[in-house]
Design a protein that fits this description.
Ice-binding_C; elongated; signal; 7-stranded antiparallel β-sheet; PEP-CTERM protein-sorting domain-containing protein/MYXO-CTERM domain-containing protein; 33% strand; single chain; 3 helices
């Protein structure tokens, strides 16, 4: 068989065009999603074993993408949405935060650990929700009871370097004062007395 140079060039060009066209129509990568992980220390992210303490948390959620707006208010809204916090249960303010792993902290402090991608965070206030942002990922922790002020949270094994922390505490339900109960009982007694008088007047 004798192929001319132009036939080989045409065949090569056709194959390259078909290859380029098929890659142009390749499926886009899936969008980032939230996943429940843990909740105990030792769960996997991107092939890395993530350890943290204090453990276990009640719930841990992982987002395999980048949340561009890392303001405390935006992350608070993300936590409220992801944990279904609404009304009186919704978070209302950040307790403490570090905009970098070891600096730009408000009401807390951060520190690097000796192993790569390991850090610690200490809040001067108690908290039960913590957001940890690292390159192309977000971890949200929720404990059943607030961690006491001064408790050091440590994390290791992250697939990328840690960027920041945001700590929040659930609002406490208002406790009625004793005078409120007295007014409630007095009001119920008054209603009962009025009801008795009306029924006696009808007889």
């Amino acid at each position: 068989m004798n192929f001319s140079t132009s036939a080989v060039a045409k065949t090569t060009l056709l194959a390259a065009t078909l290859l380029a066209a098929s890659s142009a129509f390749a499926a886009p990568p899936p969008p980032p999603v939230w996943t429940d992980v843990g909740p105990a220390s030792g769960f996997m992210i991107d092939g890395n074993v993530i350890t943290y303490s204090p453990s276990p948390a009640l719930e841990v959620k992982y987002y395999d993408g980048n949340i561009a707006n890392q303001s405390a208010a935006n992350i608070m809204a993300v936590i409220n949405t992801q944990f279904g916090l609404t009304g009186l249960n919704a978070l209302t303010a950040v307790v403490s935060q570090c905009d970098n792993p070891t600096s730009a902290c408000t009401n807390g402090s951060g520190a690097l650990a000796s192993t790569p991608y390991s850090n610690s965070f200490t809040s001067n206030g108690s908290y039960d929700y913590l957001a940890v942002h690292f390159g192309q990922g977000e971890l949200l922790f929720h404990w059943s009871a607030p961690l006491a002020a001064g408790t050091t949270f440590s994390i290791g094994g992250l697939p990328h370097g840690l960027s920041n922390y945001r700590a929040y505490e659930s609002p406490t339900a208002p406790v009625p004062e004793p005078g409120t109960y007295a007014m409630l009982l007095g009001g119920l007694g008054l209603l009962g007395m009025i009801s008795r008088r009306r029924s006696a007047a009808k007889k």
